[in-house]
Design goal:
Blueprint: H1 3-14, H2 19-26, H3 30-42, E1 46-51, E2 54-59, H4 78-84, E3 86-88, E4 94-96, H5 97-107, H6 112-127, E5 136-137, H7 139-145, E6 153-159, E7 161-162, E8 166-167, H8 169-179, H9 183-204, E9 208-211, H10 222-230, E10 239-241, H11 256-266, E11 267-269, E12 275-285, H12 289-300, E13 304-314
Parallel strand pairs: 6-13, 9-12, 12-13
Antiparallel strand pairs: 1-2, 3-4, 5-6, 7-8, 10-11
């Protein structure tokens, strides 16, 4: 039996195995084992999980395309899928572009051509909502939710999710950047949106910026890392979140009035300076209560004459609860 087949048979019997186990089992050098494992991973026979020094190998249940792209039918819009498709598997593997789309379809037993056509149609449906800055105007959503809107303008950089295909590229990255506290994903988001935000700031003549602070304590805070990565050369208005006996994250509240009450009692703008236009940035707009109450405070304290809002993602519908982030 070939060494590669022995490796696959052993892993199938154990469920998973490390390179060290395989070296002992096969009785060959670790260098030879790693060479075999690399070839098997590249050919889609095995998948890796974990990170050095704790890496384990499993037999892949899904065919993958690594070195050779699949034959693409003439009627498939390859560039659109290559640019937009992004998916993180349950095992934490990033699958993106056309190859990632193929794997996504295969795992769900979906026809590739029809799925590709549907994906293109849905992307085109949502494309019309983006303005010249590459931003989505969220003011209609806010006016349908609140009796009084204190933001002069509000936008998000992408929808959090779309029908059938789930979370968008930014939606996927945002979710797992926060949940896994992954600095690389945060940096990726910043790289993707940096130019749009800076162009917006320049065009709108924004002279100060503020970032909505998190409620949930994490070792790596998304918004702090995001602010650092954006590196906006503007004065930063100090916005703080104060705690009560129990910290209640907005995402746990399903009623709009509860979210408004929560924002009123926890968000404080602690600044004495005065600016003309202040931009406040958040990670995701669910109801929008936090952004709206922050804008109200900025104006009432005379810190800003106009307040603009931008978030990484937002929901397509009116009042919505994005509970995952």
């Amino acid at each position: 039996m070939k060494t590669s087949k022995k490796i696959i048979a052993y892993i199938l019997s154990k469920g998973e195995a490390s390179a060290f186990e395989l070296t002992n089992y096969l009785g060959i050098s670790s260098r030879a084992v790693f060479k075999q494992l690399k070839n098997l991973v590249n050919n889609g026979k095995l998948i890796k999980k974990g990170a050095p020094p704790r890496v384990y190998y499993m037999v892949s249940e899904v065919p993958v395309f690594v070195n050779d792209s699949p034959q693409i039918p003439d009627n498939i819009e390859y560039p659109i899928i290559e640019e937009h498709f992004f998916h993180i598997t349950p095992t934490g593997k990033i699958e993106q572009g056309f190859d990632g789309f193929v794997k996504w379809c295969e795992k769900r037993n979906l026809p590739l051509e029809k799925s590709a056509q549907d994906y293109k149609s849905i992307l085109q449906k949502y494309k019309k909502y983006f303005n010249e800055f590459g931003l989505i105007d969220g003011m209609k959503k806010f006016k349908s939710s609140f009796a009084e809107v204190f933001l002069n303008e509000v936008y998000y950089l992408d929808f959090y999710s779309i029908e059938r295909f789930g979370k968008t590229k930014l939606g996927q990255k945002l979710l797992y950047a926060k949940q896994s506290q992954n600095k690389k994903l945060i940096s990726d988001i910043s790289d993707e949106v940096n130019a749009r935000i800076k162009n917006f700031i320049k065009t709108k003549k924004v002279d100060a910026v503020g970032f909505i602070p998190p409620t949930v304590k994490r070792e790596t805070q998304f918004i702090k890392e995001f602010a650092r990565s954006l590196n906006l050369k503007l004065p930063q208005v100090k916005i703080v979140k104060v705690g009560n006996e129990v910290s209640v994250p907005q995402k746990t509240l399903s009623k709009l009035e509860d979210r408004i009450e929560n924002a009123k009692s926890t968000i404080v703008v602690d600044d004495q300076r005065s600016f003309n236009i202040v931009l406040i940035i958040d990670d995701a707009i669910g109801s929008g209560a936090t952004l709206n109450e922050t804008a109200k405070s900025l104006k009432q304290k005379g810190i800003a004459k106009k307040v603009l809002g931008v978030s990484v993602t937002g929901s397509f519908k009116g009042f919505d609860v994005i509970s995952e982030v």
